[in-house]
Amino acid sequence: MAATLPPPRLLPSGDSAVTVEFSRTIDDAANERVLALDKALAASPIEGVSETIPTYRSLLVHYDPGTIGFDALGDRLLALASQKLPPATKARRWRIPVAYGGEHGIDLEDVAKALNTTPDDIIARHVGGDYRVAMIGFTPGWSYLSGLDKSLHMSRRQSPRLFTPAGTISIGGIQAGIQCLAAPSGWHLLGRTPVRTYQLHRNPTFLTEPGDRVTFFAIDHKTFDELDRAAEAGEIIAERVDA
Amino acid sequence: MSRLVVASIGPASSVQDGGRHGAQRYGLTVSGAMDRLALGAANTLVGNAPFAAAVEIGPFGATFTARDGAVRVALSGAPRNADIAGKPVAMDTSVTLKDGETLTLGFARGGAFTYLAIEGAIKGEEVFGSLAVNARAGLGSPYPRPLQAGDEFTVDAASGAPELRIELPKPVSGPIRVVLGPQDDEFDDANKALFLGSEWKISATSDRMGYRLEGPAIKHLHGHNIVSDGTVNGSIQVPGNGAPIALMMDRGTSGGYPKIATVITADVGRLAQTSAGTAFRFKAVSMAEAQDEARKFQQLIRTLPDRLRSADTIELNIEALSDANVAGQAVNAMDAGTWQVAAEP
């Protein structure tokens, strides 16, 4: 399958980073190639490469131009990217509890109205999704998910909110998200999870990795409060089921 | 141990170092000093590693008082008047505050950020190898927020080492150099030429996250929404209103606007020290030139200790003084050799 895909483009991102771009659009096949290149780089490190940032469609590679130049690094990245994709390894799967609606998901009713259906139906469609962590960015632990049910695709809000709470579970455009810290957002807020995808003094500090699978399940607001206390104490309350 | 007490300080002042690397893939902002050369120079003066944690002082004044013993410090970066009990303190020199003495710093006279390094460096709890403050994520140590009056640092007692000054190379002037891309193909030739050919000013609403640029509106070929991808220090993104934003140290790790160009590593600190309202231009350079400059910049940081001189052999930097006079700004001969000379009083 990899052989049928065009080679990635190397886009200069200044003198100390290069963007390896597989696609201009959100595309699961491209995202798989991004994550495969990221893995290949981790398995056979290139001297001078300091850090990589996988995104939906590209891998940003930070490097030290004192150790390796743009052309030499570009050649090696293209060679790695042209390798056949490794057989799909078992992805980790996280089952994430979500308290939908009410104070935890203030847009649930509006989303239901906009899509001409009921809040319960929106929850069912959101819970029914099989998601993949395509990238993590913006703020610590903010996990961008692909796999949102097509019937839930809708434009972002006209005016973004300056504050949305920690743990917000939201949808925006064709994406779904798990937000860890309070942050501004223009997405539609369906609920909140007590799961911390980022918690400083916990091991691991970051729960999700690009490539992980995610499903959601609904909990009531009382259960939310109980799990929230456990999570605050450092317990990992997301259920891990290896797919 | 001595203490250094922040007796007063303005906004946009915080503990910064070389930044927090290795977790951008999880959305963790890098942060770190806006002007790495100035951080390196200040630290080198007091015998610290170049990117050790120091106080990054924003454009307003500040005062620091030594308690429970003497504290040795050094200043570099945006020039400003400084004194201890009325006795002037030069930029780019070390100085020892005796127990109870106060170092008083005025407003930045050109540039924005001055670094106060402390002998033995600021101590705290590192997260991902850094004490740098990232207020949004609640990170940074000893205070995970901008500094306030009353904050204090527990620091090494002054060593009594002879005071030093550092001879930095003559400040680079001229346009801020960029490498085009990663999304320069989202703009047509006319708009790329407009970006490179226009005069820009930094908006007063800029901060450590990004510098908003005031100038002509830059139009996109295919609209302003791209699928989010990674950012670097100095990425110049163009949002829907056409007003570019240069992403700085507190940038988000990813962004969804096309990035027309990237400031070269050697010039990010110069851009950081460009005062709001000062006109400047960009210039595109080749990747080869940018990487050559990046290597020279690394070499400069590595060899900062070779530039140390005894503080009692101050020579007037006639060239810098003359530049300063051209700019119409009276400057203190003691700090004329530093980064910036204010274009406006």
UniProtKB/TrEMBL annotation, chain A:
Enzyme Commission number: 3.5.2.9
Domain Carboxyltransferase, chain residue ranges per copy: 8-207
UniProt-listed InterPro entries: CT_C_D, Cyclophilin-like_dom_sf, PxpB
MF annotations from Gene Ontology: 5-oxoprolinase (ATP-hydrolyzing) activity
Keywords noted in UniProt: ATP-binding, Hydrolase, Nucleotide-binding
The protein's enzyme class: hydrolase
Gene3D superfamilies the record matches: 3.30.1360.40, Cyclophilin-like (2.40.100.10)
Highest taxon of the lineage: Bacteria
Protein name as it appears in the record: 5-oxoprolinase subunit PxpB
TrEMBL record, chain B:
Keywords from the UniProt entry: ATP-binding, Hydrolase, Nucleotide-binding
Gene3D superfamilies: Cyclophilin-like
InterPro entries in the record: CT_A_B, Cyclophilin-like_dom_sf, PxpC
Source organism superkingdom: Bacteria
Signal sequence bounds: none
Pfam families: CT_A_B (PF02626)
Keyword Oxidoreductase: no
Domain Carboxyltransferase per the UniProt entry, residue ranges: 25-301
Name the record gives this protein: Biotin-dependent carboxyltransferase
